[in-house]
Amino acid sequence: MTHATSADGTSIAWERRGDTGPVLVLVDGAMGHRGFGPMPALADHLADAFRVVLYDRRGRGDSGDTAPFHRDREVEDLAAVVEAQGENVALFGISSGAMLALRGAAAIPGVRQAVVFEPPMYLDGTFEPDPPDFRERIDTLLAAGDRDGAVSLFMRVVGVPRLGVAMMRWMWWVWPKLCATAHTLPYDFAQLGDTHRGG
Predict the structure, then answer these.
(1) Hey, which end of the chain has fewer CB within 10 Å, N or C?
(2) What is the mean pLDDT of each run of 10 residues along the chain (199 residues)?
């Protein structure tokens, strides 16, 4: 693991897997990081063909989290990771990370292409938009220190059945890791803007 320094001085942790091929930076969705979520396994699968970069988004894993937050800070974080590679890169982002990858591709000179999977853009009427007060309820729960409640609400809104959430609470290898990064959910919402509200 090494660190890149973002424009506001925040330390952003990253690591590389694979020794050959073009550089591919993976951008996690909500609550994922180098040690948790789908990206580490994906990196292992791609490491024969790419030099795969995993990084911890701001406030997750081994990365810092300098206040105040603005969604541009995460683009700057990604830019620092891209610059640390010393050459042009491709980005792969999933969910809210897909939105961050798109923002990064538009703003970072060293990005040559972006591939996005399931960007949360509810624009065609095929998905139910988030409840109007969803983000405010998450903020309230986090302000009260209720990370468990914030993760539960988030999971329910994104479609996990009530029974599924109850079962996840018993998964000691999953639930605490989700709660550990729950405070970054507003950062994901910032990347989405209004794309998840059905407008």
Answers:
(1) C
(2) 97 97 97 95 97 98 96 98 96 97 96 94 74 93 98 93 92 94 97 78
CB 117 within 8 A of CB 184: no
Distance, CA of 190 to CA of 82 (rounded, Å): 21
Q: Residue 176 and residue 151: Cα distance in Å, rounded?
A: 10
Calpha distance 54→35 (Å, rounded): 9
What's the rounded Cα separation, in Å, for the pair 11 and 124?
39
Report the relative pairing of strands 51-55 and 11-17 from DSSP bridges. Answer: antiparallel
By CB atoms closer than 10 A (0-12, 13-18, 19+), residue 47 is: middle
Q: Are 93 and 27 in contact (CB under 8 A)?
A: yes
Per-residue tokens: 151: 């993760």
Length of the chain: 199
Q: How many Cβ atoms are within 10 Å of 7's Cβ, its own excluded?
A: 12
Alpha helices per DSSP H over the chain? 39-46, 71-84, 96-107, 134-143, 147-157, 162-169, 175-180, 185-192
Give the three-state DSSP class for 166: helix
